[in-house]
Model the fold of this input.
Amino acid sequence: MMSRYRWSALVLAVIILISGSFLFVATASDTTSQMAQSRANGHYMMTTDELYDMLRSKDFTLVNVHVPYEGELSQTDLFIPYTEIDQHLDSLPADKNAKIVLYCKTDRMSGIAAARLAELGYTNVWDVRGGMIEWKQKGYPIYNTTF
Done:
């Protein structure tokens, strides 16, 4: 027969295990929810290094949304002012799941345009963190720059 001390220790151990399990499930659920929210909005950030690597085997539409024009990156497909992104949807891929990468001078305008495209149902919109300024600071080629 188990002593009262051992019985209490066993009950306490079971309570701790059950509590830990709930904590793990709650934490995993919260993390999954955050990831789902991040993916649900369709708007992601990328670094200039990531864009540089992606340009080696380009499979996306690259859009300069900066106004006024202050330069461009190699392989830019479109120039659409960030304030006019809604009026140029016909220039973007018809497939709203296609990858679209937006950039501007810093990332403020491209962030606004990327958020708007996500609101309109585009699910794979990328915004280049740091924009053309960071691109230039990394020593990557930039054309017709005015800064």
